[in-house]
Design a protein that fits this description.
alpha/beta, 8 helices, TIM Barrel, 182 residues
Length: 182
């Protein structure tokens, strides 16, 4: 779970895997379940863990390894009942503890830094906030929000098990930075 590539299409997913991504997360924010399923069909063949963002039904239909749900998303119980790896988002120690208690297999913690990929994101938690979250849970923490090759190692040093990226998902230097910090 070192490098999560958050992608919208197969070409980007393939490039991310070639660059060293260990998890590919299909994120189509305004799509229907049917659109996510159609787009996600070839993702199972990428040879890495496959996670669907925000849509338990699509994850189940695709035979995905997991689903990542934001704080406002429903379906955690359904995801666990279906045997999906459950990722939940958190931006504070309290939210992370609640997510772990709810059955999260990993916590997506952030945004660590401001990110242009999600203009409605919460205020950045910084490395101190990330470290607090990492120290408050026993499940792996994946740092997200403004993460790139220049700052990924700092996330690992703060206690994160891995990082997630959209803009830097296809940059091989991201995986190199994470591996060097572990």
């Amino acid at each position: 779970m070192r490098v999560h590539a958050i992608v919208e299409d197969l070409a980007t997913a393939q490039a991310a895997v070639a660059a060293g991504a260990t998890v590919v997360q299909l994120r189509l924010k305004d799509a229907t379940t049917e659109q996510r399923v159609e787009t996600g069909r070839p993702f199972r063949e990428l040879g890495v863990a496959f996670v669907v963002n925000d849509d338990v039904e699509a994850a189940i239909e695709l035979g995905a390894d997991g689903v990542h749900l934001g704080r406002g998303d429903e379906g955690a119980e359904q995801a666990m009942a279906a045997g999906l790896l459950l990722g939940l988002s958190a931006s504070s120690r309290r939210e992370a503890a609640v997510a772990e208690f709810a059955g999260a297999a990993y916590i997506g913690a952030g945004p660590v830094w401001a990110t242009p990929s999600k203009p409605d994101a919460d205020p950045p938690i910084g490395l101190d906030g990330l470290q607090e979250i990492c120290m408050s849970v026993t499940v792996p923490v994946i740092a997200i929000g403004g993460v790139d090759a220049a700052n990924a190692a700092a996330c690992i040093r703060a206690g994160a098990s891995g990082v997630a990226a959209i803009r830097a998902a296809t940059d091989p230097a991201l995986r190199t930075a994470v591996d060097a910090a572990l």
